[in-house]
Amino acid sequence: MSIVGVDQRETRSGKARLQRVPIPVQSPEQRVSNFLEVNLGYSSQMACEEAARCLQCRQPACVKACPVGVNIPGFLKATATGDFTGALSIIHQDNTLPAICGRVCPQEVQCESVCMLGRKGEPVAIGHLERFVADWEREHHSSQVGQSTSRSTSRKGKVAVVGSGPAGLTAAANLSGLGYEVSIFEALHTPGGVLAYGIPEFRLPKAILAYESRSILEMGVEIRTNTLIGRTLTVNDLFREGFQAVFLGTGAGLPQFLNIPGEDLNGVYTANEFLTRVNLMKAYLYPEVDTPLYLGEHVVVVGGGNTAMDAARTAIRLGSKVTIVYRRSREDLPARREEVLHAQEEGVEFQFLSAPVGISDDGQGWVSAVQCMKMAQGEKRDGGRNSVQPIPGSEYWLTAESIIVAIGQEPNPIIFQTTPELAVGPHGIIGVETGTFKTSKEGVFAAGDVISGGATVIEAMGGGKKAARAIDHYLQRKNS
Q: Which SS3 state, helix, strand or coil, does residue 319 take?
């Protein structure tokens, strides 16, 4: 296929360069009735034009802002000239999951937030371009070119990776590239962790996840699904099987609760349960697939993060009217701006400075309404957000047949309950040594949400990448 690139020198000046090339999307009217991807992706010409906006800074801040350190100016320069194979090769030196990262990473607060063009206009659409390059490779059946994590012919030893989410997949790929025999242990029947059960199809198609996961397995990494470490096997069992080190990338899959009256009624879901049933059990295909999911006409989603947006937008597609209740202001929403915009376009309503305080029973054990209380903003705290306080006497009711709670998650305690040597901090966070990712148990390392609580996909990948290097250093010293 012949691609005509864009000469960056021809577009180095001019006001038009301040605005990015918009990515095509499904219209709101179309997308609320399907689970197809909302963002449709750049064409080749669009990608060349957008990549040509990069100023090629001598000291690119975007690279430092990327948790996995992708050579962003390098891949943008190749993309601008139509060398998509070269661009993919550059990305793969640091990122094993570019099609995923290009879709779900919050680039606007990471690499794009420090782009020089953003000072006077819009930053380069780094995420959209990363997605384009990865998709182009897949659609044109190119090989996995230039991956620094390509399969090594020698094996230094055996390492077990617990969890196949972004941290686990990244650690496994990097360890395999470093010369280790790697086995991933996944509790569910399909790999991907939160990428598989927690992100809707319209944001991350399962085919994309399967493709990028398969590319890692083709490097020689083994995966054992339906294996719950802490129940099926323990960490000590893994050492007895001959693994010389264990990496824990089990994420934060234990939901937090509201602890309000009525929370045990039928029709109250955690976002974790709701999205898992939709994603992995295909509840959105009912009655064709026998995993029915009752929501009713009115759904209230509690929370303001990306998970809350995913739950709300999924419920809209299942035919319900959805209201998001968030205890802080619009300005304090932690969700990505794009996800909030898409939710609004799709008809999700927002009630800010409001918090649920009780759930009413319809008399038969099902939800009938949620009682909320208005909140008042106080002074800003160290984290930059205003504190909030309930306003006495401000209670009101919202009709709801279902409530989806999306207020945060923490690590599941199963592993540390069966591994007493592991030091665990507040909220089930596993303690690690700064820089080495070593836990308190010899030979066990951890990274991702299990050591930080809920964070981003790319931050988990960054931790997995660094932990793989730390494991290599540990084993090289131990075996020397």
A: coil
Rounded Cα distance, 456 and 465, in Å: 14
The model's pLDDT over 331-362, given as tens digits with 9 standing for 90+, comes to 999 999 999 999 999 999 999 999 999 999 99
Amino acid, single-letter form, for residue 469? R
In single-letter form, the type of residue at position 256 comes to Q
Give the number of other CB atoms < 10 A from CB of residue 228: 16
Tokens 């060398």 belong to residue: 83
**376 three-class SS:** strand
Whole-number Å distance between alpha carbons of 266 and 235: 36
- C-alpha distance across the termini of the chain, in Å: 50
Q: Which residues contact 21 (CB under 8 A, 6 or more apart)?
A: 42, 46, 49, 50, 125
> Which domains can be identified in the chain, with CATH numbers?
8-139 (1.10.1060.10), 158-253+410-479 (3.50.50.60), 257-407 (3.50.50.60)
Quick: pLDDT tens for 29-82. Answer: 999 999 999 999 999 999 999 999 999 999 999 999 999 999 999 999 999 999
Gap between the Cα atoms of 126 and 110, Å rounded? 10
CA distances from 293 to 109, 208, 277, 296, 453 (A): 35, 25, 8, 9, 28
Output the six-digit token pair for 186: 């996944």
User: pLDDT (tens digit, 9 = 90+) per residue, 404-442?
Assistant: 999 999 999 999 999 999 999 999 999 999 999 999 999
The predicted structure's pLDDT at residue 385: 80
Sheet holding 181-185, edge to edge: 222-224, 181-185, 158-162, 245-248, 444-446
Residue 10, pLDDT above cutoff 70: no
Find out whether 370 and 361 touch, Cβ atoms under 8 Å.
no
- The CA angle 271-276-282, to the nearest 5 degrees, is 130
Rounded CA separation 322/312 (Å): 6
